[in-house]
């Protein structure tokens, strides 16, 4: 809630309460996030009819809050709502989950641009066929994006779409027919265990969207390392690199939601959350980096990571856990990001991740916060 003392209101020409423009913008931003308003203090304006006049003014400001964008309409129900991360390797995703992700044009436009740049920069001979493999093809949005990229650049492209979910495979095979994907071959297999037709060929480009909210938390590096043998020497992986980030955060609401389950397991679970009413006590810091193709492949692949990060608190706060983010270089200068300062505008395929603490702790501005992960 936001407390608005009556004595911060100015008096307009009619003797009624009003707020300065800066205060108006701040209050409207809070109203847009669903913050409750509390009017405190005695009425102190000539024509104020008790506290009702102040509430009416706040209601007037609420009426001027800009309408939600389509992206905001989609994501607002998830604000500060705990969700378990998806496990696409372990579980077969439902059709509704695929449909939700396929609504994100920003991500697939970025992938299309990355594939187009890879074709133009690495394959100057447009008449020479390029072999591209989409691993974890789902219902085909990356296949569609890759075909559009080849149409833009004029390259001859042949595609293998590899998918383990039998329900998604049915959709892929149907799209081959209905969408005229004459250059696409669908492979029903776990990408790491693919054998038989096509598996003896080597790809010029491998495309995937296995990233999690912390970059590596949905087994992206392990899966991509597992198919690197399918890539030609000098071949391209899209994404090429991804970096995870961590920041100490304050959110009594999220911590209490975890505590309500009253089990230790919940405090040892990372949750996907559309962070809204939270406070970052310090800027996010880079945590882990993964690159593909893996330069250590196949001699010494080791995706174990550990690091110690030290943050300086920017204000007094109670730390309830850590917020996790990632950004990814798809190819060359094409990036996608959920980092607060570089977030890809209107992209909603990934929300941040929340690592709760068993016991919150208090810090003062300037205190050091150390996290070992």
Automatic annotation (TrEMBL):
Residues 241-373 form the PRMT5 oligomerisation domain. The keyword Methyltransferase applies. The record marks 101 as: Critical for specifying symmetric addition of methyl groups. GO terms for molecular function: protein-arginine N-methyltransferase activity. Residues 1-62 form the PRMT5 TIM barrel domain. Keywords: Methyltransferase, S-adenosyl-L-methionine, Transferase. S-adenosyl-L-methionine binds at residues 98, 107-108, 163, 190-191. The active site is at residues 209, 218. Residues 70-238 form the PRMT5 arginine-N-methyltransferase domain. One of its GO terms (biological process) is methylation. InterPro entries: Arg_MeTrfase, Arg_MeTrfase_PRMT5, PRMT5, PRMT5_C, PRMT5_TIM, SAM-dependent_MTases_sf. CDD domains: AdoMet_MTases (cd02440). Pfam families: PRMT5 (PF05185), PRMT5_C (PF17286), PRMT5_TIM (PF17285). GO terms for cellular component: cytosol; nucleus. This is Protein arginine N-methyltransferase. The lineage of its organism: Eukaryota, Sar, Stramenopiles, Ochrophyta, Pinguiophyceae.
